[in-house]
Amino acid sequence: MGMCLNLARQSEEETLKREMDSLITQMHSAGIPYADAIRQFKKRYILEVLAHHKGNQCKAAEELGMHRNTLSRTLAELDMDTAQIRNGMRRPPSSERPRVQSIASAR
Q: What CA–CA distance (Å, rounded) separates 76 from 22?
């Protein structure tokens, strides 16, 4: 079982590397400056971690290996609106949720 997990992880890492290489090539070809590429990566990565922790900045900071204040400062430097991030992690009120038709009523 351990060998299968190692092979699966290796395959996953190889796929990730290929995808990252492709993305970097595309960004370079598009003329995206290094600083902008790093900024976009940071924003997207931080958003992913925040979403995983449902907007909880303390837990996200811990996973990112930084202090909560450092995460807060980084969010500000990246012009990321923390209130909007938190609100985006919450379910909308029931009045604003899309209504799902049942299979029977769709027929």
A: 30
**Is the overall model pTM greater than 0.85, yes or no?**
no
* All residues at 6 or more sequence positions from 90 whose CB lies less than 8 Å from its CB, including other chains: 55
Contacts of 50 (CB under 8 A, 6+ apart): 56, 57, 60, 85, 89
pLDDT tens digits, one per residue of 39-96: 999 999 999 999 999 999 999 999 999 999 999 999 999 999 877 777 776 655 555 5
Q: Which CATH class is domain 33-90?
A: mainly alpha
- For 54-91, b/e burial (b = at least 16 CB within 10 A) is ebebeebbeebeeeeeebeebbeeeeeeeeebeeeeee
Annotate 17-39 with b (16+ C-beta within 10 A) or e (fewer).
eeeeeeeeeebeeeeeeeeeeee
